[in-house]
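Regression check, 4-(2-methylpropyl)benzoic acid case 394:
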Amino acid sequence: MSDQLEALDPFSEDFLSNPHPYHKKLLAGPPVVRLERYGAWAVSRHKLVSDTLRDWETFCSSAGAGLSNFHHEEPWRTPSLLLEADPPDHTRVRTVVTQLMSRPVLAKLKDSMAEKADTLIDQLLDRDQVDGVEDLTRAFPLQVFPDAVGLKHPDREMLLPYADMAFNAFGPRNALLEKSMANAAPVMEWIAEQCQRESLTDDGIGAGIYAAAEAGEIEPEQAPLLVRSLLTAGVDTTIYGLGHALHCLMRNPDQWQLLRDNPALARNAFDEAIRLESPVQTFFRTTTRATEIGGTAIDADEKVLLFLAAANRDPRHWKEPDRYDITRDGRGHVGFGAGIHVCVGQMMAKLEGETLLACLARKVARLEPTGAPTHRLNNTLWGLATLPVKLIAA
Ligand code: QZP
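Current build output:
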């Protein structure tokens, strides 16, 4: 059993296209598994994943949050000031971004977001051919998040191939990564341009980052890199999460009915989809010193792969872990990470989720599947490419 686990390739097509049976095997196995082919350690149990994420002094991020160890390998892009940094460097920039994603900022976005959801859903009601992903769960974040950042450019599609590259790049140099990087140069150039002050409106989160630089809270050259963080991490993650939420509601008519009866459950319905399907399946930390996890000794400068998705279904922690239950108390799930690097945009993501699902609950009587969904493979992200559906108006 343990030998089998050591031969696992969590970045193979086989694993990525149907991860849950593998997560079950990992959860039933020893607390830590040596992944021979990658020379990394893998952790899946909820307690160990959560504890590891919180111990940033032993499990650092500055050597990269992917398989590649920045102490030994050149990063594919300038490292992120947020994700790929440790205190004290991390702390200053994180504080600025936290404030720009806080409750008062989100409160101001709420009404316009709800209007955009309204308009979008009205266009789809009773249409025969709707792709739940393309027309709804991709279209919505692709509009509202860049709007919140203040991106002037009207065409946001380029954000998708960029995110595909970034999230594949946390894994090994396999065919998935090669394919997404095939046309990297123009995409990277476009992104870099959108991160400049001139590409941003005066009233968005991006302008807020530049204002923080003017106020001396961060260095001027850090501003475009922080905008880059928002554009990298803020769109595709939510797209995958919303796709899962819609799919979960389609597969669980009882939960859809609960949501229709009480649209106030929309926020939890979204968060529960994040727990159950975990759009961000995995990422890595690097040991700063010799340590142990669950009794297994681990040297310094080793990569540790954290299976967020497995932890989110660990039966040691969750009752009926495989059940989609929109009334569940999901606190403690690690779908947004945990500790000092916990998703800084999670309130924004939840606002988007709450807004779209509540609007659906009010306007749609039934979600009728009209074909089989397809998955989109990525070394880090798990989600749908297409989801044929008919939205029967209420
Ligand atoms: C990606 C960045 C799940 C995380 C690995 C998502 C993520 C967070 C931050 C950045 C990129 O700062 O570029």
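Comparison notes: The chain has a mean pLDDT of 97. Residues 65, 80, 82-83, 166, 229, 232-233, 280, 283 surround 4-(2-methylpropyl)benzoic acid (CB under 6 Å). No diff flagged against the previous build.
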